[in-house]
Amino acid sequence: MQTGVKVGECMRRRLPILDDRASVFEAAALMKEHNIDSLLVAKGDEKPYGIVTKSDIVFKAIAGDSIRGIDNIKTIASRPLITISPDSDIEEAAKVMSKKNITRLVVSDKKTIFGVIDVKDLIRISPSLYDLIAERV
């Protein structure tokens, strides 16, 4: 059931990139400042390789078993990035999220990162995708 809506039409375009040496506190502060749920993670000026979410901070850093060993976000970043093309239909995005049991995808064409799309974006655009997503997420 193609919706006719492309991922690139409903993604959020701005997603800050944080150096992987940054602290968990710095990541949380940046999320609060920008009112966002996730940040891309990169080593210096290199291409981002991971993502840190609010859930990562809560479950891996704060409530995790190894909180004493977590100095920076590199430790809790989810990797590799799971991406989708901006030309993909949002139904495909919902299928990937459901299959991978994740709530957001990085929108990329293999060379360039354009933004991020999450479950809330999909449901806002096409409420009928809720059942597909809810199966696993």
The structure class reads alpha/beta
Overall pLDDT: 86
CATH fold node name: CBS-domain
CATH architecture classification name: Roll
The biggest beta sheet reads:
3 strands, mixed
Radius of gyration: 15 Å
CATH C-level label: Alpha Beta
CATH H-level superfamily: CBS-domain
How much helicity do the residues have?
A: 25-40%
* Major sheet: arrangement of strands: 1-2-3
The N- to C-terminal Cα distance equals: 20 Å
Give me the strand/helix succession.
HEHEEHEHEEHH
Question: Residue ranges: pLDDT <50 for 5 or more in a row?
Answer: none
Supply the number of structural domains: 1
Number of strands: 6
- The helix count comes to 6
Task: Give your account of this protein's structure.
The chain contains six helices and six strands, in the order αβαββαβαββαα. The protein is of the alpha/beta class. It has a three-stranded mixed beta sheet with strand order 1-2-3. A three-stranded mixed beta sheet has the order 4-5-6.
Secondary structure layout plus pairing:
Blueprint: H1 7-10, E1 17-19, H2 24-34, E2 38-42, E3 50-53, H3 54-62, E4 83-84, H4 90-100, E5 104-108, E6 113-118, H5 119-125, H6 130-134
Parallel strand pairs: 1-2, 4-5
Antiparallel strand pairs: 2-3, 5-6
Features:
137 residues; alpha/beta; 3-stranded mixed beta sheet; 6 strands; 34% helix
Question: Gist?
Answer:
This protein has a single domain (7-134), classed as CBS-domain, CATH 3.10.580.10. Helices cover 34% and strands 18% of the residues.
